[in-house]
Amino acid sequence: MLHQPIVVPIATRAEVIAAFSYALDLTEGQPAGHCIRACWIGMQVGRELGLGRTELADLYYTLLLKDLGCSSNAARICELYAADDRAFKQGYKTVGTSLAATLHFVFSKTAKGQPLARRAAAIGNILRNGDGIAQELILSRCTRGADIARRLRFSEEVCAGIYHLDEHWNGSGRPGRLTGEAIPLASRIALLAQVVDVFHGHAGPQAAMDEVRRRSGLWFDPALVRALEAASVASSFWTVLQSPTVEARVVRLAPEEAAGSLDEEYLDDIADAFGQVIDAKSPFTAGHSLRVGSLSHRMAVTLGHDQHGARWVRRAAVLHDVGKLGVSSAILEKPGSLDEREWESMRDHAVHTRAILGRIGALADMADVAAAHHERLDGTGYPLALPGAAIGMDTRIITTCDFFDALVSDRPYRAALPVEEALGIMDKEAGSALDSDCLAALKASLG
Known about the structure:
By secondary structure, the protein is mainly alpha-helical.
């Protein structure tokens, strides 16, 4: 089970970012490929406007990463509305622009199925503090998204495009209540593209265009609506949007200046940035991914990996929970035991991890390693109930570090355990859930 040297496939930044955008779709409750399709739509609008190369480059990454901060308000949405955050976000995007439609949606979804007193309390809180709640949720999302974009070394224009995604042409948006051309052009196009894809997926091309026209002059810059109408006349506009080749077409639209292959340092930065996206999903997992990554790196060195191999293990460890972006915060934040349906959803996060990493050429070789971190040596783990002989050393390292960090961190159902108590629990799992050599290496690493 010695670690074999890994050869990183040649990839471009656009390919990796496009593949990772599927993780953002999960968090927003959107059908897979939403950010990809929004990028296709928005780039056609940008071309119709005659934007220059630099403006198109900034627009391209604003569109792919528009939802980069979306995980940061998931737990808060679950808390405030007593609802599944992913379903709430998905449904909210199909609500019209009127206050009546918004209130009807919010009140119909808030604490649905809960006791009357719980519903009344939640709805009362929204009535009293609705404006502040909306600003809090959007500001959290926008700020986190822009901060992570900076970590990914994108321009300030991209960061601003992400930050101001939810501004409206008439000043009714957030977080800055900007109006008209004070809103960054990339933000204006990204919001327009988002609405087109949501309503196209919901009811088809005509519904999408009707909705955009209704919002012209309210949410949307009328000039951009006209550009969209002109671009959408081309038959390829809609056929590519519905085609399984849309991702490949979008990758080919990548700006030339970003078309070079990635180096190891930038891949680390991408992994760490998406580690932040993962951990923002729940206040109980803040810093978890990077801590597991750091500890896994130290353990890999202790167990004889060379620096390249240890670096690869760290990257896989940082991304091991990316599939949790597809799990409702109502489950992740639940203080009590999960029922069977909830456990099934929780177990699926490992499947999501494999699917997301498997899409990314430069990281696909770690998909199985990262996704197997809940497998057990006795064959009773998930998602595949692998026998011990099928669980490689890299996965065993990540499993041990994940197990340890979960024990010494606060969780919804218990407070953090002292290190010695955590290690005592892990000693009892050695040979059944955990590899004994990895546990010994963990103790040495902690020392």
